[in-house]
C-alpha cells in the first residue's frame, strides 16, 4: 500500500520487463555515460511519497522505505533491485537441523552514525522492536514465528523459532538495524548505512549526506536530496527544468512523450510489485458472499481501467502475485469482464435489483479516478457506489485498524504479500481455512519448490473466491537525466537505493 500502507527464496525469479520503444526494461543498472563522474555531486530526486515519519515501525509509509531503506538503515540481509537476497550486516549464518535455531555472525568494523559500534545487542533490540506491541511493520506477523532472540556475545545473534520458517532470511531483510539507545526515531535516525539524514524540511525535502565512516563501499555521490511534490505535473516540470535529476516512479503516463523524445532523458520501464486493489470487507454483507464478490469482479473492465490511467503501461494479472514472485500465474482470465453474467450472478446471490455500498477511497492519485471508473461500471449492473474520499491517516485508522468499511481501494507494494490472505484478522477479513493451512504449510516447506507449489495452490483458491479484485499491476517507470547512471529501475517494495548513482562531471 502507498502512503498509508502498514509496511508489506532467497532468490526471486525476476520476470524480464517488457521492452517498450524508447524504454529500458531489465534489472541491470543503467550504464555510466562517457566521461568521469563527480564524486561530490548532489543528486536531486523527485518523489510524491514523503515519509510521514522516519520510523518504519511507526507508520512512516512508502516514503520512509524509499528514502531510508539501504541508504540510511541496513539489515542483516539486503533485497537487491534484481530480486536477490544477499548478506549485508550478517557476515555468515547457520541453522540447526530442525530449522528452529539460526545463528548469525556480524560483520566487523561497522559503526552507527552516532559513532557507536554495531553489536549483537543492537540487532536483538531491532528485531524485538519490529515484534513489539506498538509496531506497525508489515512483516511483524511474518516474524512472529521468532520466539527468542539472544546476543551471547557482541558479534553473535541467536534467533530461536517456534516452528520452521523458510522465509526467515528474506523477512529479516525488512528489519532495520538501529542503535539500541537511539531516541526520537520519528524525526531522527541512527543507522549504519552509507548516508546520514542531514536535513528534513517536512512538506518539502529530505537530505541525505555521505557518511565518511561507512564500513562498506562509500557512496558514489556526496549528497542526495529527495524533493517531494503533491502532484506528478509539478514533479515533471521540475525534471524538465533541471531542478531534478531523476524521478523515482513516473505517475503521469500522458507526460512520458516529452521525455521519450528528448535525448537529455532516459525512460526506464522496470518490474513493479505494486498492486491496485479493490478490497472488499469479506466479513461484511453483501461482500461476505463469494458470488457477490465474483459479480463485482466480472463487472469491472480492468483492462479498460488500466488503459484509462496508464495507457499502454502496466499489467492486469488477476491476483495479488506479481510476476517477480516464484509462484506467479496469470489468473486474469478466471473472471473475465462480462457485465451480463455479473448481473445474473447478482440475481442468483439474492440481489436482483442490485445494492449500494460506500467505497472508501484515498485522496491521492490514481484512487479518485479509479473509484469514479468503478462507480460508472457498477451502475450498469444496478450497484450504486458512494465514493468517500479519505486521507491516508483516516484510511489507516478506519480501514486497517478498525475494519470499519464495506469496500476500499489501496495499493500494496510488497512482493510475497499474498500470504496476508492466510490471516483471517487482516483488514479485509478473508477467511478460508484451506488457504490458511496451505500458507502455513508453505512456510514450513523443506524446499523452495515445495513452497512455490503450496502458494500457487493457495493463490488459485484466493482468486476463485474473489477475495479482492486485483485491478492491475503498476508499471515502474523511472525517468532520469542521461547524465546519471547506477540508479535502480525496479520497484521491489518501494525501495530506491541511491548510493550507486553517478553523475557525469
UniProtKB/TrEMBL annotation:
Keywords for this protein: Signal
Pfam families, per database record: SBP_bac_5
Domain Solute-binding protein family: 84-413
Keyword Signal: yes
Organism for this UniProt entry: Microbacterium kribbense
Signal peptide limits: 1-21
Superkingdom classification of source: Bacteria
Name recorded for this polypeptide: ABC transporter substrate-binding protein
InterPro entries: Peptide/Ni-bd, SBP_5, SBP_5_dom
